Amino acid sequence: MTKVIAVGGVAGGATAASQLRRLDPDIGITIYERYEEISYGSCGMPYHISGEVETRDSLVNMTPEKFKQKNIDVKTCHEVIAVHPHNNTVTVLDKKNNIEFIDSYDYLILSPGGSPRILPVLKDTPQTFSLNKIEDLDDLMAYIETHNISEALVVGSGFIGLEVTENLSERGISVTMLQHDDRIYKNIEADMNGMLYEAMNEHGITLKLNTEITKIDGETAELSNGETINAPLIISGTGISPNTGFLKSSGITLTDKGLIPINKNGQTNFDNIYALGDAAVTRYQHVPGLNMQSALAWPAHRLAHIIANQISGDSSITHEGFLGTNIVQFFDCHIASFGLSEREVADIPHFVVDQQQKNKSGYMKNAAPIRIRIYVDKKSGLILRAAVTGTAGVDKRIDVLAAHTRLGGTAFDLINIEVAYAPPFSSPKDVINMVGYKAIEKAKE
Amino acid sequence: MTKVIAVGGVAGGATAASQLRRLDPDIGITIYERYEEISYGSCGMPYHISGEVETRDSLVNMTPEKFKQKNIDVKTCHEVIAVHPHNNTVTVLDKKNNIEFIDSYDYLILSPGGSPRILPVLKDTPQTFSLNKIEDLDDLMAYIETHNISEALVVGSGFIGLEVTENLSERGISVTMLQHDDRIYKNIEADMNGMLYEAMNEHGITLKLNTEITKIDGETAELSNGETINAPLIISGTGISPNTGFLKSSGITLTDKGLIPINKNGQTNFDNIYALGDAAVTRYQHVPGLNMQSALAWPAHRLAHIIANQISGDSSITHEGFLGTNIVQFFDCHIASFGLSEREVADIPHFVVDQQQKNKSGYMKNAAPIRIRIYVDKKSGLILRAAVTGTAGVDKRIDVLAAHTRLGGTAFDLINIEVAYAPPFSSPKDVINMVGYKAIEKAKE
């Protein structure tokens, strides 16, 4: 019997295994997951803090028992600690019984994910939590309740930092956010993030820029600016590192950041070893030759389908890279982008087009501004990067821009996107169209 | 001096004239508009009834005076009553002074719009209003106020019927809607319109299907079902007919419905005569050889830009037909579609794919169902028609489907549209993607 091993049972591994079972009722599938739980919606975890997600169990899609019914063998608390590609085997540590053993595969799917980077000063402090796995959420929720937490420090201002801040605040916990430098949420342009500061102000979030924790003393934190503040709860949101240490001497190619490069089939440098999820790196769909690490759920789910098809024998289903479409909600602020980072786009000759107008017909009572910036490749007219900010309707505009760009639509051709118009939804020349008209003008300059 | 005459000064004519002036500072431009007002957002008119659009003047984009500043000559209350293409002249009736005169053009832009079809039984009844031009809105608002209207009949259930019903109801007026047959809002599939009935129920709207007015007697209406009901105010929303009677002996080609066919440049059968707006007919962008009459603002604005460029000498800017993307809001119901009508699609070999899932991650508190149906061309895999219903997020899905289809994306390729995912906005496999996965399965059957 052909046998597949998946390393990691959260989004990537669990989804790939499920897809594969749908395609092939007979193939042997084993998932090794180093923690207790599998197959949960990790992106939803911040929303359980506020109660927006009412029960933590609603985040859990599948249990080992449910997988068993599908004839998928799930071993939780089992950590794959080495891969031996030339033997097609893995070394597994059964963490509960502290036993090592060898298992063999025909195909290996690597979905080990990442681990939060915790600042040294916060290591081993009992009140510091990250939000990487569902056990972290359980620990955090228990800590908030047993310690009657009414104030918290959030370190970092990425996806997790913003989402946790909003949800702690919605729960009634007073939040101070610390950012080590002078700019928050670097996924968006510095001159487009003003609404985040406004929202913090409006919701009573204290923001301290250029500030780090220098020392934790019990429930107080000493800061680099000389202040001492209460820190009964600290959320660390300072990024993740790929869990690929176990691959270092395997012969599987890793980047200098420890990421696993994959090709259009989802394959690593070994034909029968695939990778996906936060530890994988692929390329941009719309700009050749540029790596894209997208620790995002959408590409993980897409790759799960591709890899399952590849393993089951349909080599026609591939991916041509991703755009990295992303969005975050912070109270009423919706902030989205896709494509190259600002730093990456600087290396390609381009021009920038900005457009701001209302998200619906301007005469409607609650019409709100929406702002789009596109970076247009001077040679091809393609949108290298798009950034959209506003309230309602940001997700629509980024999705339309992404769908258009993916199929090779240029900035100039945005004028032809036939949006559904009625006054509650857009304008007869939507902001999407107007940025196209402006791009045409700008190209003439 | 080259001279352009535009017939009709609402969306199409006024926008084309403005665009032309931007492109050519010297060309002579005259707009003849048969009523008093020009350049207003007619789609917003229903929303003034409820106060969602606070002032009627906010609907007016431009006045004759403002056009004068742009050196565009606007003659209101001037009706073009004949066109003489072989002389390049028009006959104009100055309605205020009841004087006819001849004017000549190098280019003629026809944007005469349509007139509401009023049922014979309602003709000349003082309480019957349509909502076609802004003067109609003024008359209606005055009538509501002076007659202390607290109940109304709405006849018809198209865009106008639904929007007026919602806004009358929001104003506190009790509405009865009459539909002559057994199905409301035929832009959407009969088995997808249930939410409209629910919303009517919830908001206390009385709906009478298979019911017509047989007689108006003062402020009461006799109905075909034998009932007599109060009818102090009646809104007629039973469609429009193109205002093209004045073209009948001109030699300009008209369809049997009186619509003006145009080519990709916006030209009629005369090279220097263009048409756009509710009286024009073009073709579908994604299905060759099928006429599309789209009395919609988006195509009108798009054609205005194309025609202005064509006249100013840039023949490269054309259109390849439209999808007819449309949407309506009725309380919380959002209902959208594009492409062929159900009747048109029946003539092309196709299969249907349905998908229903939540508009955001299912574990979020206010996640709401969204439903998509696509009609997939068996030969090409293109989406011939798409229908989307739900609440928040319908506009996003139809716009993404439209952007994708316009660039030749197939139903199967929907799986690759990289939507911006975060729990408040979508799922890692959005409904857009899932309908693609289902299309792939269905095609295998």
Plain-language structure description:
The structure is a homodimer of 445-residue chains. The first copy, chain A, is an alpha/beta fold and 445 residues long. The first copy, chain A, folds into three domains: 3-42 and 61-114 and 241-311, FAD/NAD(P)-binding domain (3-Layer(bba) Sandwich); 118-236, FAD/NAD(P)-binding domain (3-Layer(bba) Sandwich), CATH 3.50.50.60; 332-444, 2-Layer Sandwich (Enolase-like, domain 1). The first copy, chain A, has ten helices and 26 strands. Chain A has helices at 11-23, 45-50, 64-69, 134-146, 159-170, 194-202, 297-311, 342-345, 394-406, 431-444, and strands at 3-7, 28-33, 73-76, 78-84, 89-94, 99-104, 107-110, 114-116, 128-129, 151-155, 174-178, 206-208, 213-217, 220-223, 228-230, 234-236, 240-242, 260-261, 273-275, 280-283, 291-292, 326-330, 333-339, 350-358, 369-377, 383-390. Chain A has a five-stranded parallel sheet. A five-stranded parallel sheet of chain A has the order 9-16-10-11-12. In chain A, α1 (11-23) packs parallel to α7. The first copy, chain A, is globular and about 65 Å long. Chains A and B meet through α7, β22, β23 and α9 of A and α7, β22, β23 and α9 of B. Chains A, B: Its cofactor is FAD.
